[in-house]
Amino acid sequence: MTNDATNAAQGTAAAAGHAHGPRMRWAKLAPEVYKAMIGLDAAAKKGLDPTLVELVNVRASQLNKCAFCLHMHTADARKAGETEERLALLPAWEEAAGYYTERERAALALTEAITVLTDGFVPDAVYERAAAVFEETELAQLIALITTINAWNRFGVTTRLAPGQG
Predict the structure, then answer these.
(1) 146: part of which helix (H) or strand (E)?
(2) Is residue 143 part of a domain?
(3) Taking Cα atoms as reference points, which of 160, 161, 163, 157 lies closest to residue 60?
(4) In a domain, 15, yes or no
(5) Domain for residue 98, yes or no?
(6) How many CB atoms lie within 10 A of CB 49?
(7) How far apart are the first and last CA of the chain?
(8) What is the secondary structure of 52-111 as a DSSP string?
(9) Does 7 fall in a domain?
């Protein structure tokens, strides 16, 4: 559906120099890096609940404004059993306390702290909150997962990968 608002938004994006389309196919140009990222991604997910993995992937992708990863991971979240309601509330998860478990809330807080790094570090309170609900090995995996999705997001936004395209 195209309307005046959509056309205006597209015009604004184009005027700002954001003609969103792939700049390059980095995976084809740096295949060894891509292969290493696939391996890192698989290793980072090990032992973590698939729904939690996708909540983290979606939230980091929202913060990083990576449309490609958002498209992919919201679909993956649905396949993992995630509900539309929880996906819709994810940007406001702190205000939607009854919708997310304490483990999910701790993981989302850690995701935001690692992704944004506003203070240049992850605050002790955020880390301790996650450490209180995740075993040490799980916490290590969670940190790896968050770091990995942030790397994917940076590849996606830098090369302007388009949603739905590989």
Answers:
(1) helix 136-159
(2) yes
(3) 157
(4) no
(5) yes
(6) 15
(7) 24
(8) HHHHHHHHHHHHHT-HHHHHHHHHHHHHTT--HHHHHHGGGGGG-GGGS-HHHHHHHHHH
(9) no
Domain that holds residue 48: 31-159
Q: Phi/psi at 54 (nearest 5 deg)? A: -75, -35
pLDDT of residue 166: 60
pTM of the model: 0.86
Q: Report the CATH number that the domain containing residue 114 is assigned in CATH.
A: 1.20.1290.10
**Calpha distance 69→81 (Å, rounded):** 18
pLDDT for res 130: 98
Q: How far is CA 29 from CA 33, 49, 145, in A?
A: 9, 33, 24
Half-sphere exposure of 145 (CA within 13 A, CB side): 27
pLDDT at 23: 86
Q: What is the mean pLDDT of each run of 10 residues along the chain (166 residues)?
A: 38 50 88 98 97 98 96 97 97 96 98 90 96 98 98 95 78
Number of compact structural domains in the chain: 1
The per-residue pLDDT for 137 is 97
